[in-house]
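2024-03-11 09:14:02 DEBUG pipeline.ingest accepted 1 chain
2024-03-11 09:14:02 DEBUG pipeline.ingest length=400
2024-03-11 09:14:03 DEBUG pipeline.predict start
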Amino acid sequence: MVKLNGVLRVFVYGLCLGLPGFSLLRGAILAGQAPAAANTNGRQIGTIKEISGSYIKLTTDAGQQIAVTVAIDARILQLTPGSTDLKTAQNISLTDIALGDRVLVTGKPKDDADSFLASRVILMKSGDIVQKHQMEQADWQKRGTGGIVTSIDAGTGALVVATGARKTLVSTSSRTKYLRYAGDSVKFEDAVPGTLLQIKVGDQLRVRGAKSDDGLSIQAEEVVSGSFRNLAGVIVSLDAASGTLTLKDLGTKRVITVKVTHNSSVKALPAGIAASFAARARGGASPPDASSSVRDTVADGDNAARHVPGSGTAGATGHPTYGDLSQVVSRLPIASLSELRVGDALMVVASQVDSGSSTVTALTLLSGVEPILAATPSGAPSMTLSPWTVGGGAPEGGAQ
């Protein structure tokens, strides 16, 4: 059996870098292996941008352009996503490589630092990677859940997470895999190996595993967590040109400076959907037109009015109720900061670098939430946003 050695294993996992949530990269990290640099002496890894005969141009994940000449006697192998053993690799020819494929080339650098002579090429087809990624996303949506951590029992490894009024018991074991997001990023590739002890009450958490029939408990196979700040308040001042606003937080009554960057996700909640969630926050039924508003919004964003598994339950009309605000927000079109005005109400998920800081960077910023905030007598929303793009499913990349 020709198994991958430690270094090569990391590079094979790295073939999928840039596709957040992809299991191979996650497996490498969980095994305690850090992704190697794009150029480590006799190895290069990246995405095919140009190919002509024995000449390949690839772009590394750091953005470097590498000109690769494939030796005439080079061995060219194709691995399927999920493979960790070269015994399963298929011998292919150079003509089987296509634009967009992910490759690891081994050999030796030429005199030019941006040129390389390859004696072996290992690739994964872009289509196979996308298909694997989509399957993982579907599994997260089907068997995943998440919310805010409300309690932790370090002795038993049990956690309770809440999404609005709904609470889910999360049971962990020695086989549970943990990843931890950095405070300033929700990109999967920026996550690092984690432990149960790192998870704190108030953290955002996503979990995948076997759910109970009633959906109120789940046996965790994978847990992804992070510390983020959930803010809700009114805009005090706004400078759209510089991407900065100040917000009076309803929970703490403090004025918080919120920085909006090109990575921030700015969305506006339509009035009908806001009314639906406000009714739910008051413990009542959704307005009659709420389902139509949700379907129309999803159709606008996805070109299809379809329900995503895990986002809600079907009501009497057969339409989903969309119990997860984040699931709806992830499908809204991008809005502009220039559309906001002083006095507008916002819900914000922000980076949690320093819990005592009065300045945060927005990951997700949602306007049009006045009805939701008004529905809660205390002024604090009964529901929060998730920093991840799929509210009830996979922890995807950064804000979009």
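2024-03-11 09:14:41 DEBUG pipeline.report The longest helix spans residues 126-143.
2024-03-11 09:14:41 DEBUG pipeline.predict end
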